[in-house]
Amino acid sequence: MNARGRTDPKPHYLLALAAQERWSRYEIAFWLALIAVYFLFPDNLMLAAQILITGLFAVSLDLILGYAGIVTLGHAAFFGLGAYTAGLLTTVGYTEPVLGLLAAGAVAGAFGYLTSFLVLRGRDMSRLMITLGLGLLLHELANEATNLTGGVDGLQGMVAGRVLGLFDFDLYGKTAYFYVLTVCFLIFAVVRALMTAPYGLSLRSIRENPQRAVAIGIPIRARLTNIYTFAAVIAGISGALLTQTTQFVALDVFSFERSADLLIILLVGGTATLYGGFIGAAVFLLAQNWLSTLNAQYWLFWLGILLIVTTRYMRSGVLGGLKNLSHLATRRRHGSRA
Amino acid sequence: MKPMLQTTDLCKSFGGLKVTQSVNLSLEAGARHALIGPNGAGKTTLINQLTGVLRPSSGAIWLDGEDITALPPYKRARRGLARTFQINSLFPHLTPLEAVTAVICEREQGNLSLLDRRFFKLTRRRKEIDEAHALLERLNLADDCQRQTRELAYGKQRLLEMALALALRPKVLLLDEPAAGVPEGESDELLAVLAELPQEISILLIEHDMSLVFRFAQRITVLVSGAELVSGTPAEIAGDPRVQEVYLGKHHD
Ligand SMILES: Nc1ncnc2c1ncn2[C@@H]1O[C@H](COP(=O)(O)OP(=O)(O)OP(=O)(O)O)[C@@H](O)[C@H]1O
Ligand SMILES: [Mg+2]
Question: Which ligand is nearest to the CA of B227?
């Protein structure tokens, strides 16, 4: 287990901690599988890209809900701001997508930072109401400013630029998929590093017990403001990715359904698991895609069942359920050792 | 000698209820000071003001010569004012090792770079983790240091309460009934830990168990209805008729 050539063997308590941090083979398989999708499903790359974007959006919710314990019903506000920032930027001549991502992240992050002081003040119920209120507010503003946003018809005059001035978006979504996958991976790697660093441990402490977290010297307010802002940046980037890959942005990016669906996605996938967002997005969008082709009403029916089953029987979502299964399996194999 | 922790005319009321009445407490460096009093006397409320969880109605709190009355709780902790809780206040899903490491990393945050704090793996904080493990070992928690806190026996959780406070390397330690709820047969571990706390820490101990108080304390303050009834050496307190009156016929558990 030790790195070769180390003179001092690592103590056992360090090994267990290190095992949690290491990229597991499941994680590596996960990202390789996403590359394989490109070759295996060339006709479904747009859907695959959408799943990744929604997954990234859910990861940003996971940062504040799963890791920091802040409930929100208005996460679409950041997504929408990012989506429109990216769209509007191309209408004034800045068409390069990566630039659009940065701008979207900056705008959403600024809004997140400013509103964090409102949101973080209260307790759960007031947080729900304030985030819901902020979401509705932005939705209505975008609705009023139709000549800026294009309302339900969508933003007019958008232009598709080449990624880094090199790669054109194509009809099949090949460029789109690789672009989204790359961005998702890079951001995910940063998120993962944050959560396995002392910073992530302090967030978990705050979620577990704020009273004690303060008593051991953690500046709760500052740390929550910080993660809330960071989550807003990622949500904004997700929104921008959707605009850029679909070449379209309309009012629904701000919709309440988007915030609510996202919550479902994360809960179904599993909170505070890093991958729960992506898994949830895949389950949700594939199920929606498949079931709604059978019968449109069925979708909501099955969604209801899915929600009840995952929250009732899989406490920590699909990922938690899978983990439990694999624990069971290994226990079987090694014989039951209490 | 200037006191390590001091309150001057500290007052606090909840509406009409006066829970702290002009309390003047003073702990020297290395003090072993006990705070006793009947249930509802205002002992925990006093601690909550010292640590900044509650704002006093009037009066001031001094730590190591500086007025900390207006300082937020986390800054007081960073300056070396640590506490334990009467009712366990732990991190149920963290392991003791993670929890204590979190305290130490927070304490050392001034010495760590942004990258260390945010982007490098926790296990690169080898020094902090080793320190956490050594502390847990000292408190007989080494065997349980990798289990989730919620799975630990109650007595072990009481010890972890102490470990989290000690990990701050406090100048002043406020212990709110550390033995509360621990059955008599299992309290030896805890008593041994209390006896071996570093000499230089000033300790304020709240405790109902008088045998423990008289063994531990060099000075005792008796609090009744939020006001200081009397302060003195254990011998003085034991012989004081007012104290006997307060405790006469009372059950203290
Ligand atoms: N937040 C609050 N609001 C109103 N009254 C309070 C509040 N907190 C405590 N009190 C009251 O203040 C008084 C002192 O309570 P406190 O918990 O400090 O007592 P204590 O000395 O620690 O008692 P015990 O030995 O039972 O722990 C009690 O009468 C309690 O009901
Ligand atoms: Mg009390």
Answer: 1
Q: A264-295, pLDDT tens digit by residue?
A: 999 989 888 899 999 999 999 998 888 777 77
What per-residue confidence (pLDDT) applies to A123? 84
User: Which of A202, A215, A218 is facing B51, going by the closest CB pair?
Assistant: A215
Position B251 pLDDT exceeds 80: no
CA of B69 to the centre of ligand 1 (A): 20
* Confidence band of A312 (pLDDT split at 50, 70, 90): confident
Residue B204: strand pairing partners: B33, B174
Left if phi > 0, otherwise alpha if psi is -120 to 50, otherwise beta: which for B235? Answer: alpha
How far is the alpha carbon of B121 from chain A, nearest alpha carbon, in Å? 5
Tokens of B57: 């109605």
Query: Dihedral, CA atoms, B194, B75, A64, A128, nearest 10 degrees?
Result: 100
Q: End-to-end distance of chain B based on CA atoms, in angstroms?
A: 36
Residue among B71, B56, B44, B73 nearest B175 (CA)? B44
Q: What is the ipTM of this complex?
A: 0.92
Number of domains comprising chain A: 1
**Is A332 part of a structural domain of the chain?**
no
How many whole angstroms from B126 Cα to the centroid of ligand 1? 42
Render pLDDT for A36-47 as a digit per residue (tens, 0 to 9).
999 999 999 999
Question: Looking at B37-103, which runs of residues are DSSP E strands?
Answer: 58-63, 66-67, 81-83
CA B77 to chain centre: 11
Residue B96: the pLDDT is 97
CB contact (8 A) between residue B74 and residue A13: no
Pocket, ligand 1, Cβ cutoff 6 A: B 14, 17, 19, 37, 39-45, 86
Evaluate whether residue A13 is within a structural domain.
no
CB contact under 8 A, A217 and B77: yes
User: pLDDT-based confidence at B209, cuts 50/70/90?
Assistant: confident
Render the burial of A314-326: b for 16+ CB within 10 Å, e for the rest.
Answer: bebbbbbbbbeee
CATH of the domain at A77: 1.10.3470
Q: Whose CA is closest to atom 24 on ligand 1?
A: B39
> What Cα–Cα distance (Å) separates residue B13 from each residue in B20, B42, B49, B94?
7, 10, 12, 36
For residue A143, what are the domain limits? 24-295
pTM of the model: 0.90
Residue A4 falls within a domain, yes or no? no
In a domain, A327, yes or no: no
Average pLDDT in chain A: 89
Q: Which ligand is the nearest neighbour of the Cα of B40?
A: 1
d(CA B56, CA B12): 5
Q: Which residues of A touch B77 (CB under 8 A)?
A: 214-217
Residue B113, both tokens: 């770079």
- Give the DSSP per-residue string, A168-200: ---TTSHHHHHHHHHHHHHHHHHHHHHHHSHHH
